[in-house]
Amino acid sequence: MVEKKKTTIILFSGDYDKAMAAYIIANGAAAYDHEVTIFHTFWGLNALRKEELVKVKKGFMEKMFAKMMPRGADNMGLSNMNFAGIGPKLIKNVMKKHHAVPLPHLIEMAQEQDINLVACTMTMDLLGLQQEELLDGIEYAGVAAYLADAEDGNVNLFI
Amino acid sequence: MNANKVLDAKGLACPMPIVKTKKAINEMQSGEVLEIHATDKGAKSDLTAWAKSGGHELLDHIEENNVFTFWIKKG
């Protein structure tokens, strides 16, 4: 049995388009039989947020952050041509026309393909995000766990 | 060409043709042939590379009316 190749992706960005690129590569790598990990840090954590409002105890700053950041993948903005939120609506229409898979569906597919979705716990603390607010079935880790995956990785991306 | 299984991936965009092909191949026995129909322009490069990397054999492919048909033998 040959050892599986590994793909590790750091998703730092909270932009819809960049996250889409990350998840397309991740799903492709899983189809290549790679063991795939996406390590979500900083704004990339918002891709893992549940869309519904989860009641958790937060301080003032954490509440402000929670309000200002997009709740879930579908509510993220574009890195370019966001036009105060109109851009994502336009691009989603274009995507439908071209049968491109929307980001929330790509994330579901990643979970079905057993891709390890990891949330960086240090930046969760900084942004005031709690486990209850993030998707079920994900892992929580820090830099060491990421490096353990990346050091024998074959593909390693920072998005 | 005789195929053991046919996968219709027409109209699907990247990365779906590869993801679906992988799923279909997983359910097949070694030596069996999968026939794939796709319309994605990148499918030819994608499936060729994918088959090679996974140890499968791309037996043949044709393009007709903007539809690509591939035959991949599971390795």
UniProtKB/TrEMBL annotation, chain A:
InterPro entries: DsrE2-like (IPR032836), DsrEFH-like (IPR027396). It comes from the Bacteria. Pfam families: DrsE_2. This is DsrE/DsrF/DrsH-like family protein. Coiled coil: none annotated. Gene3D superfamilies: DsrEFH-like. It comes from Cytobacillus stercorigallinarum.
From TrEMBL, chain B:
It comes from the Bacteria. Signal peptide: none annotated. This is Sulfurtransferase TusA family protein. InterPro entries: TusA-like, TusA-like_sf. Residues 7-31 form the UPF0033 domain. Coiled coil: none annotated. The lineage of its organism: Bacteria, Bacillati, Bacillota, Bacilli, Bacillales. Belongs to the sulfur carrier protein TusA family.
